[in-house]
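SAMPLE LOG
Freezer: B-3
Tube label: C17
Construct: single chain, 281 aa
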Amino acid sequence: MAAIDDLPPLGEVIRAHGLAPKKALGQNFLLDLNLTSKIARAAGPLEETTVLEVGPGPGGLTRALLAAGAKRVVAIERDERCLAALAEIAARYPGRLDVVAADALETDMAALVSGDVAIVANLPYNVGTALLVGWLEGEPWPPWWSRAVLMFQREVAERIVATEADDAYGRLGVLAGWRTEARILFDIAPQAFTPPPKVTSSVVRLVPRTDPLSCAAALLSRVTAAAFGQRRKMLRQSLKSLGADTAALLAAAGIAETRRAEEIPVAGFVALANALAAARR
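STRUCTURE (predicted):
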């Protein structure tokens, strides 16, 4: 494993600070600095970029981002045990690393960064989907971030990039496909982590679309939640929970009542969201 800086190997850092990963925090530390460097490179040139990182843990990816030339890294970490290790990285890269001791789910991340912003993170498994949905539903759009390179369980990654042609297609695929261009870059085997998870992980790159189809994010989220909540049922049945005239909604969107959620492309769900908005007016 090639050294990327003169700081101690991550294994030594973890032992020195007593950073046994906590399952309750969804922690699986990626120790291979070659892999963390590969993730950092996937974010593109970083010399003029502020990177937002969620869940840095002992700082393997943090170090890779700084070594790759990131102008600034803002790392949000809720595990106070990791702060001392991150402080050592900040001392090695003066003025380029800001550590925010907070829960990312309760943090106004946009307020912490400015300029060209990339989100790059090995997201904790237990909050990764919730964070992504929040970023996809954010207003205004285009968002405060220009690209995101994120690690998820392979199953979640497949749901993010899925279209109506894929078995993994669902609400997450609709939201990601609506507002971003998303693709899986590469996989990471369980053995690369401490402790090894039971599943393969995948790194996904998402780039915001500058002009996605127009609709209210909150209504699109409601429509997709209703449709995929009963995905094997016809839409005339699954959309009843919206509290509107289902037949009228589907007619306005140009969708047959007998279609199922898994058959409807992103544009169809946008049309349904706009039909729901019109029905409420």
